[in-house]
Amino acid sequence: MSSIDFSSINKLQTALDRSSLTHNVIAQNIANVDTPNYKEKKVVFGDELASALQAKRTDPRHFEFTNSSSGARVVTEGGSIQNNGNNVDMDKQMTELAQNQIEYQSYADVISREFNKWNIVLGGGNS
Fold it and tell me: InterPro entries attached here (predicted)?
């Protein structure tokens, strides 16, 4: 019997972790929208995970996968758009939060389907 390959699940878990970190950073930005001299933070990723997932759109109505990696860095964005030195743009943060929630839910749905497949393969019945 060959060993079970959980590499796709591990990659999806990394994507969920990335999305969770992004959510936390965006939430921190939103919480500090009125804090004087607060500078927006952003999570920066490479493209390793996206290439590892080799995600392809099968329908033009599907969302495109974004480039991401487990090698994340949180960086402070420059610039000031408010008189108090704060550069957080609430509209931008809310847009990024919505996009991140869509990505997280997509990854969670895919990993759930993967677990359901393994449940069937391992004799757990139909889910």
Answer: Flag_bb_rod_N (IPR001444), FlgB (IPR006300)
Q: Which of 116, 106, 121, 97 is nearest to 12 (CA)?
A: 106
Instruction: Report the C-alpha gap between 39 and 35 in whole angstroms.
Output: 9
DSSP calls for the chain? -PPP--HHHHHHHHHHHHHHHHHHHHHHHHHTTTSTT---EEEE--SHHHHHHT---SSTTSPPPPP--S--EEEE-----STTS----HHHHHHHHHHHHHHHHHHHHHHHHHHHHHHHHTT----
pLDDT tens for residues 6-50?
788 888 999 999 999 999 999 999 999 999 999 999 988 765 445
pLDDT tens-digit profile of 70-121? 567 777 777 767 888 899 999 999 999 999 999 999 999 999 998 888 888 8
Give the torsion through C-alpha atoms of 111, 116, 118, 120, to 10 deg: -170
Q: What is the pTM of this model?
A: 0.70
